[in-house]
Here is the input.
Amino acid sequence: MEIINFFLDEQIDDKKKKRIKELSKTLKKVGVEMQIYESESGMQMLAVEVDLMKTNTVIEQHSRNAGRKKKAQRLGCITPQEFLQKVEENGVDRVAEEYDISRRTVYRRIKLAKEAEEELFWNE
Here is the structure.
């Protein structure tokens, strides 16, 4: 639990207190609580308490893994040179069928493999 205190320059009226309370109710769902305290001298302070474990849990649960998955990621397990050799031996059609990718993707990968020269990994 982490607590952050903000000292307020101006007095918070009842309308603003109500809005802060509503915001606090919403943020409580993700592990954040807010309260307004008033000291003996009349200074007001906004205390924000953050439950980092709950916040991280909410973030993990709501993170999206959206988008179309790349079929060509399967090519990452061979070096660019091995890919070029496979294309030379088997041809574009056969390689496209083997990796379940389009001919166009094979040609794009050939271009990337030639640019990679002696590197061990694909440049993407």
Remarks:
- Helices lie at 14-27, 52-62, 80-90, 92-99, 103-116.
- The mean pLDDT is 82.
